[in-house]
Each structure stands twice: as C-alpha cells, then as structure tokens.
Amino acid sequence: GPRPDRVLRAGPGTVDPRPVAGLDYDANKDFNANNVAEDQVGFLGRNATLNNVATVTTNQSDAPQAYSFDGSTSTANFGNFETLVGNPTDASTSFEIIWRSPSLTGEQVLFEIGGGGDGMSLTLDGNDLRLVAKDGGNSDSIVADLGTLGSAVQQGNFLHTVAVVDIDGGVLQLYADGELLGEVATSILDYAGGNAGGFGSAISDTGGHNGDLGALNQIDFFTGEIAAFRVYGGALTAEDVELLAEPFKIVPEPATGLLLLLTSGAFMRRRRETA
What we know:
Layout: E1 19-20, E2 23-26, E3 36-37, E4 48-51, E5 54-57, E6 65-70, E7 75-80, E8 93-100, E9 107-114, E10 118-125, E11 128-135, E12 138-145, H1 148-154, E13 159-166, E14 171-176, E15 179-185, E16 196-199, E17 223-233, H2 238-245, E18 250-253, E19 257-260, E20 268-271
Antiparallel strand pairs: 1-20, 2-17, 3-4, 4-7, 5-6, 6-17, 7-16, 8-13, 8-17, 9-10, 9-16, 10-11, 11-12, 13-14, 14-15, 18-19
C-alpha cells in the first residue's frame, strides 16, 4: 500500500500536488473531546493543550467541526517551537490557518510563536490582518486590509489564510483566500525564541511584541472559530497556496452572495504521490 506521505487523490496513478504539513491541528478530525488538539500528522508529536476551547459543529459542510474560542479565557498552547525536531524556527516556515469571527473589532491574536525577543504573530486589528516577525533588533511586518473578505468572515464564512516566513529568500508573505495580500523583504534569521506559542490567543508574550507593530501584549484572546492550524517546513509558493485555498475560495452565490468552501489541507516539504 501507499506510504503515509503518499495519497491517491482521484484514482490510481493520480498525484496530489498539495504540500504536506508537518504539524496539523484539524478540528474536523478531533472527536474525543479530551482538551487536547492532537497533531494529525504525528511526525513531530506535538499536541496542543486546549483550555476552555469547545469543539463545535459548524454550518459549513466542508468543515463540520471547529475549535471555538470565547474571546476571554480560551487558549490552545502548543509549547516552545524551538524544542521541535530540528528547531524549525531557524528555517523557512509557512503557517496555514482557517478561521472565522462574528465581529472584526479590536485587536485579536490568530496565532503567535516566541515572544518579544525573537517571535512572530498573525493578529487582527479590526479589518486589518497583521503579520510581524522579530529577530532581536530586526523586525518586519505586513498590514493588509481584508476589505470585502472581512465582511464575508463576519457573515459566517471561514477564511483561508497563509503566512510565509521565507528565511532563505529573505521575504515575508501574507495570503488570504489564495491571493497574495502583501510581501516585504526581511533579514529575519530566527522567528521564535523560547516562549510557548499557540493559536486563538497569546500564551505568554505575544510573538513580535515591541517590533514593527509596537506593543502587542495588550491583546491576547480571539473570538470566533478556528477549523484548522497547520505548519509547513519551507516557504510555500504561490502555486502551493492556490492549491490549498482552492476548495475554500469565497465565490459568488446568488442565494447568499458569498460562500466560502473549506478543505483539510495537507513541516515537511514533501509531495504526495502514488506508491
């Protein structure tokens, strides 16, 4: 049979070109309600501890379940990334998060890693999506207005979002709905220190605190639902992101105006192929 990293997509001889995550927290595969988000890949063996996070049924057929965050006490703690196999914080890494929120007001953390020395985070400030990475005194950031995508999120649609820290190429990139929202040159060589990180809230210091975006420790909790959070080794290309986002794309629909379709995407830069 096929190796664990080889998956048939449509039939014998068909190759699934989507990249494979090395760390995968997928609410749709989490049915045991044990206050743990299990890593569905298992290669790195890093589960996330959930506190006051409910696994809820959604109205999206493609994402029947999501982790629900209450905006005041919910946390998902995946610990110190520097202690993962090979310390990926010194190498190019990409992050995928699929989320929705009933209200894009104020500042909220989608995910964060590290702290105020070396650290990075993806946060919201109203309708702005903000990516920051900090390596000691070096810090770079992207701030992008979600525009109509923000309205779709508040109407109950999940938004497929990808942040890329390309240390080899010297660039930060931010994608939403499969489209590049912004990119900036960076000299970051280490995107996280020894602080624990998580998704849906800050765990200790918010990653990138006192960097390009200023003080971030006054914000920590997210209100809404996260269907999946995944980490990929290496920098995803625009083609990679398009493939991952394709089933999630927000498209016109006469009855509702907008519909977002979700998929389960795939820190290994391997490809799925047939045995």
